Each structure stands twice: as structure tokens, then as C-alpha cells.
Amino acid sequence: MKIVLISANQTTSPYPVFPLGASVVSAALKAAGHEVLFLDGLADGVSQEAGLARLRGHDPRLVCLSLRNIDNTSSAHEECYLDAVAALVAGVRTVTQAPILVGGAGFSLMPEAILKRLGADYGIAGEGERAVLEFVARLERGEFPPTSIVRPAAFLAEPDIGAADYGLPCVDYYVEQGGGMVGVQTKRGCPHACGYCSYPVLEGRALRARDPKAVVQDIERLIGERGMKYLYFVDAVFNDSQGLYRQVVEEMLARRIRIPWVAFFKPTPIPDDVLAMMKATGWAAAEVGSDGTTDETLRGLHKPFAWADVEAFQAALNRHRVPVAHYFIFGGPGETRATVQAGIDHVLRLSSAVRFVYTGIRVLPETDIEQIARREGLLAPGQSLLEPVYYFSPQIERGWLENLLREKLSPDPLCFYPPENFALRIAEFHRKGFMGPLWEMALGHRPPRRIRSRG
Ligand code: B12
Ligand code: SF4
What we know:
The protein is about 40% helix and about 15% strand. It is built from 17 helices and 17 strands.
């Protein structure tokens, strides 16, 4: 079947990211023999009219739309992306009568409300690689699903997790404009239950790993064929408690792969020999989801560690000379004036790391924070979460918190509140050829730099 698959993401903050989810769907459709035209609003660099003309030229029987982000989840610098996507859907309607099917991480958080807001026809909430094939098979028989939202009955089994389509032409754009980085997924799922987090909702609580050999083949191919200069492991948490990540690291070592890479970590201990192995593969930076800044607020967020673990993790990575950026949130459940003061002291004490500081928590469906927000009357009965709502502990006043953070954190050149202050500078350095997430430059680490040809 002729299908157009559109990556609707227009966000370039903190930098453009390769549409990995859409590319997994693309790979599944192509492997099943469908003729897929992949349109990427960022990478194609053409006007919406020109994109729609290409869409019409393909004469699709189905238009698939991948919606990664609905907003930027940042209370200090709110951005919402749905109006632009609704306009895109309206544009698609002017050039084709093909049904429009939506999917993606952002979409899956609130599928009914988003489908309605976008004015699209169908949606798949959750993993797309198998469900999209079932949808298309029905369509080929002239059938439509009985409900506009399709929810796969279960998360995919490990062998069924799809590979990405790294052959897409748009990879060049992300390597060029996204600091040389391309995302690779080694596993899905997170067994933890942090109060605000939607990852277990999106990926499930059971860890499901891809074959480490297939993961490393992807990496080899991205380096050899696509010029990837920096690798981003997109797993919810790279250092999972089952130690699945070690197999990937060992496979990289066995295949002599060395490339700068970054991933998300939880601050729980990693044995020294494993840290050394990771370093030997090129591990260049760690983004740590510390979130809480005191034991009280870590408990309030249901984080699976205490403040002492955050400091111990930092010390271990210092020993191995791996630059660290912590993400912190002030204002969550249990936050009081006293925990804010203590938390600021803790954050300032982590002086060998970059610290990105957020205030308030974007309330997402099916999370504990949604229940708390409803209990505390922050949300009216039946209120939709499509327009961002940020949770702030009722025991503090938002203006007081924001002023205090600005006052106390801004003298520290490695504390970024709000984090967008840093994101604004990244594009400039990426343009100059520096690669990677680049916050490590603030720590005095020199990131790899692309040698540009003179021609
Ligand atoms: C890794 C990650 C990042 C990394 C990306 C690094 C990189 N180089 O790729 C970093 C840290 C840079 C990042 C940044 C941001 N992120 Co982010 N990120 C993620 C994360 C953890 C994984 C994304 C991923 O690649 N998954 C792997 C792919 C394979 O899965 P997938 O995209 O979900 O695709 C599957 C399905 O969704 C579906 N599907 C996808 N497309 C389609 C299309 C169709 C038609 C169908 C049927 C199905 C389908 O099938 C796919 C295969 O199963 C998700 C959370 C999560 N666990 O999903 C958040 C997430 C996507 N990010 C989110 C956000 C908000 C952001 C930022 C805006 C944050 C900020 N303020 O900076 C930026 C935006 C960046 C940008 N330019 O777009 C939100 C989006 C939801 C929302 N509120 O809008 C998420 C969901 C996290 C959350 N808070 O809940 N992110
Ligand atoms: S915040 Fe991290 S550790 Fe906690 S549930 Fe989400 S992905 Fe898992």
C-alpha cells in the first residue's frame, strides 16, 4: 500500500532529535512491503505547501502522523505544539482523502483528547510497529477498526520490538544539525514508579531488551554508513537494576566500538569495573534523573534512592572523569519552605556537575501526581490535561520559590534555572561543529568537533 508517514515534530530545543519512533514504524511498514514516503517537517527544510505537494504526488491510501511532543513540560518557558499539528492535519485534508492515523509517545499520553483536537481519524496508543501493520492489513480488506483509538492488548515481546529505519535520508540532517547525535534504543520499560513519570505508562513496567547484537549492529551502521558522531541511548534508564545494559557495553567492547555516548541514568551504584568498561566504549556524558533534592522530596516523588545515593553516584563518576548533568525538580509533593532551603544547599554542593533545575511538575494522565493533584483540588473534576497543568506543592508559593531559585542558583555558572537558558546556546555551538549534548563544555570538557571540509 502507498503510505505517507509524517514526523510532526518541529521542536529544535534543546536540539533537533532524530524521529526514532516514526522510523521504527517506517521500518515495519517497509519490511511488510509497503511503499512509504517519509516526510519530516524539520529535516526536509521545505514549506508546508511543498511538503503537502510531495504528499499528494505519492497518492497515499493512508497518512500516518507521528506525534512525539505535545508540549515542552517546562513551567518556566511553556510551549505547546498541538495547534501547529492541527494546522498540518487540516493541510493534509486539502490534498488527500486518505484516512489520517496518529501515533507516537506524546499522542499515546492522551489519545482521545489529542485525536479530537487534531481532527484526525484514527490513533494507535502505544507501541506502533505491529499495530500499524494490523491497521493497514484491515484497510487493505476495506475494513476500519471498530473504535477510533486502537490500544494494543499487551506490550510487545522482546523479539518483536522493531528496529529503526536508519536508512532514512533525514538521518543526515540530524547528524548535521543535532550535534552529530542519533538515538538508539536498547530496551523498553521501567520497573520504578516515580510519582510524576509517564515512562512506565508508555513502555510498561517490565524491562524488555532488544538483542544486544542487533543494537550494536545499529550503532556500527550508524557510524559507518551514516556518519553518526555521537550516540544517544534513549532508554528510560540506561543502568537498569537487572544489569541488561552490561550486555550492550560488553558487545560494544567485543566489536571494538568506540564512540562518544550519553544516556539517562538513575543514581544507584554501578560497580567500578563496569564503569571502566563503559568508559572504554567512549562513554562521554551522563544525564541523571535525580529529581528530588532532599530525602523528603525524593520520598514524595517515590524515587528509588536517597540523597546520599545522588552524592555517591556523582563521586563515582568524578573518579572516572565522566561529566554529569543532574535534572532537579523543585515544588513536587512534600516540598515545604524548609525542604526548598535544604534542597538548594544540596544542589549547590554538587559543584562538580551541571544542574538543570525545573519548577513544578507537568501533570500527565495515569500518574500518581494526577491523583494527588485531583485530591488537592488543583484539577477540577473532569478537567483535561491537554492544556499543561503544573503541580506545585500547596505548602509553598510558586513566586517565592522561583525568586529564591533565581537568587540562589544564578551565581553558580553550572546551575541552569530555567534550563532553557542553556538550551538557547546549544544551537550556536552545534553550528560551530561541536558535537554531543554540550552541557559538558560548561564543566571544561572539550566535546568532539567535526572537521569541516573546505570545499
Ligand atoms: C530519549 C528522550 C529524549 C532525549 C532524546 C535524545 C535523542 N537524541 O533522541 C532528549 C533528552 C534530548 C529529549 C528531549 C525532549 N523531550 Co523527550 N523523551 C525521550 C524518551 C525517553 C524516549 C523517546 C524515544 O526515542 N523512544 C523510542 C521510540 C522507539 O519510541 P516512541 O518514540 O514512543 O515510538 C513508538 C510509539 O510511540 C509508536 N509511534 C511513534 N510514532 C508513530 C506514528 C504512528 C503513525 C504510529 C501508529 C505509532 C507511532 O511506535 C513507536 C515504536 O513502538 C521519551 C519518553 C518515553 N519513554 O517514550 C521522552 C518524551 C518523548 N520527551 C518528551 C519531551 C517533552 C521532550 C522535550 C520537549 C523536553 C524539553 N523541554 O526539552 C525535548 C524535545 C526534544 C526534541 N527536539 O524533540 C515527552 C513528550 C510528551 C510531551 N509532554 O509532550 C516524553 C514522552 C517524555 C515525557 N515527559 O513524558 N527527550
Ligand atoms: S523517573 Fe526514571 S526511574 Fe522513575 S519511573 Fe520514570 S523512567 Fe523510571
